[in-house]
Amino acid sequence: MKKDTFQFNGDIPKDILFGIGYDIHRLVFGENIVLCGVKIPFDRAFDAHSDGDAPLHAVMDAILSSLGQKDIGHLFPVNDDAFKGADSADLLKQVLNIAKQKGYKPSNASVAVIAEKPKLAPYLDGMKASLSSLLGISPDRVGITATTNEGVDLIGNGEAIASFAVVSLEKIK
Ligand code: MG
User: What's the whole-model pTM score?
Assistant: First the structure.
């Protein structure tokens, strides 16, 4: 065998799925926003059909994507009044049920929130606890980072908050 040929001698994890999700919501005048199921006092609110919890929406899309399913826009259509003002934590439970029916459960989640304001540092621990509880996984398998958009574009202007999520799922034994 040639010396430069890659050889992997460890266990290759089977039955692990990965998905990526993204979401953004515009902000309007209000009293609070919900991020990862945590209500955060703010002088803005999400302009959204549901509670607008962008990181949870990104997490749901990541789960659905990992399973080869269509996104939450298909699952919870914005023109369906059933989801008006919906608690995204409840929607996530439905998405987790879909995963369960397919024999999978989350094993880790990595979430980035991009917000110019409010300062999220005081809320990150609570958001992590909330997300780990919602996903039914240990907090040390959940990572939440927050960053600003350096004043660039809509997000940097404080007009919207966006989120990326990568979630891995493992086969339920
Ligand atoms: Mg959304």
Answer: 0.91
Higher pLDDT, 124 or 11: 124
Tell me which DSSP letter residue 60 carries.
Answer: H
- From ligand 1's centre to the CA of 9, what distance in Å? 41
The confidence band for 140, taking pLDDT boundaries of 50, 70 and 90, is: very high
Strands 32-35, 104-114: pairing is unpaired
Distance 53 CA to ligand 1 centre (A): 7
> Residue 52: CB partners within 8 Å, gap ≥ 6?
25, 33, 34, 45, 46, 88
Q: How far does the centroid of ligand 1 lie from the alpha carbon of residue 82, in Å?
A: 15
CA distances from residue 71 to 138, 149, 157 in whole angstroms, order as listed: 25, 25, 28
Strand order through the sheet with 142-147: 44-46, 16-29, 160-171, 104-114, 142-147
Ligand 1 centroid distance, CA of 170 (Å): 25
